[in-house]
Amino acid sequence: GGPRRLLLISNSTLHGGGYLGHCQHHIQSFLGQKVKRVLFIPYALHDRDAYARTAREKFESLGYGLDSIHESCDPVEAVRKSEAIFIGGGNTFRLLKALYDNSLIHEIRKRVLEDGIPYMGSSAGTNVATISINTTNDMPIVYPPSLQALGLVPFNINPHYLDPDIKRTHMDETREERIRQYHEEPNTPPVLGLREGTMLLVEGDKATLQGVTGARLFLRGKKPTEHEPGTDFSFLLTDSKPLNP
After folding, report:
1. What protein family does this chain belong to (predicted)?
2. How many structural domains is the chain composed of?
3. Which are the catalytic amino acids?
4. Does residue 214 belong to any structural domain of this protein?
5. CATH number for 80
């Protein structure tokens, strides 16, 4: 085994670029040359075949084979044999329900936290890597047995984090207000708002913000703080312990 290695990406597509185009160099650096094949989990989207084709095309262009878990007759065994795992974006509730339905929560945790295989997530795949999906932007279109997720890190993330648009007259709730409402509940963990084009690299007990935009950190009872790429977020990994689902 080895230390956990995670690449938690805010979004898979950035304006003006193709699927995973904005972070493909980060992916190659993260997976390296030891990994030959990636296990893709497309559960967040309804059309899993089309999703797997898109992901396979991208990863093959980067030099990696890709197996989609939905094509396996035994998803648990597919996770146990995997060299690396990538969970794509879509609807977070649909994704988490499918992970529970296929008995994969414990198996993925074990492979990543005990065996040290690389884990990549984008959007919903990043949400489920955290303590819970309480801070997802998605609609609860299905009902997972729990909102508790993989717990690979001891805090939550809000992917696609949006700043308030001061020019808009429509007075809807801002993302910041929604996260503050979450923190009004007791014992709620930190929330890292990852803007589009940003990702968090976790290597053991070290976490670093990467990408082209910044992130906003929300701690319960404190004012949110702004952080640029290169920020060391390792303290988020050591201040509390991951939850065991």
Report:
1. Belongs to the peptidase S51 family.
2. 1
3. 123, 138, 160
4. yes
5. 3.40.50.880
